[in-house]
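On to my pick:
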Amino acid sequence: MLRNARRLARRALTRAINSGPILALQVGTDRRIARKASGLEPSARSGHIVISTVGLGNVGDQAMLEAFLDNSTEHVHVVMPATNSLTLPIRHAHRATLVHLPGLVDGMPYRRKNSRKAFVELVRSAKTCSVIGADIMDGGYSPRESVLRCSVLALAHRLGADTAVMGFSWNGNAHPLARDAIRGIASTTTLYARDPLSASRLKADGIRCTEVADTVFSFDQIDAPRDLLSWRSSQAHRRLVVVNASGLVASATMIREYVTAVSALRARDFAVLLVPHVLRQGDNDLNACSDVYSHFHADPAVHLVTRLMQPAEVSWIVSEAEAVFTGRMHLAILSLNHGTPPCVVSTQGKVEGMLSLFGLERYSLEPTVGLGSRAFDSILELTQDGLRDRLVTIHPTVRDMALSQFRHVNQHASHPRSLP
């Protein structure tokens, strides 16, 4: 009974902090702080601020951060909602700093006070302030996270920083609070929609945006994971398919569908590598991938990755594959960077637009009964002759679209990075 009472209390608290009045109170406080701070003596400006996604064991979130760092210059303060959310790659350790500001873009009103104060000090001397928008801004997961990110960007603009929301999706049913919040900053903040479908939805909602591609389409790091080299060598005579079972769609029914797909692939003598892309409580891919692997653990041609991979390691894995079947969009993006065709389980309305950049929208698969057979049929189509060459030909155009949003950062640099 006590456990149920606590659960109900947590739900009530979540509803309260996501409510319009509580969010309006926080936004109003941000505005008052901005008005007060804007009257202070201006600081000399240098470097950039980027507000990261949640991370905490998400390869896609890590890849978006690394793409930002790879394509920016000068010092970058990476604002994170939690300690150890993400890591700094060694190649950027000399020019980036991780800053933990709890509650700034996702927390309770009482937790934001100190974080807001620290953020104001940072942004008063920064040239730019960017939010990695990803799939957060439409409020599909939490309207609070969208509204507070918009509020922080409005504060940063008032204090003199050039502001932007980097590559983000916009689903067909954005939360009204999120829609109002992003509409409120559209005149002062550059909004980069990361696929044509999101751009059209934003424009239909009366929100001005610039169409680009996901920042990870610019990611070009690659690193062979030593713990996979032996297995890959042992299966070099077989064509490889990478399979990701997402913790977002990990019901018993969906696990059976993944087992169906892997069984069909093995019947055609494909080697299968099960790769978790998110390892964290709540939507853990490793649990889902392990459930699938339990049906094949005696088969040496099926292998399970059991640790969190770095984006560069995932890039090597997908570069070795003939095709990818994934429930995570950024695994598909990393595969397309190497011409490897993916079929992708559709979640949050963000996959179709990305795939349309390569003419692959038909390979956005709904997580319903029959998924396993549809995925297998898709993989057979995707491994046909000539498709990989076509994807490699298209990729430079998509990469240039991804790079175009970094002009927001580099136009302020003392030594601008050359971009298309």
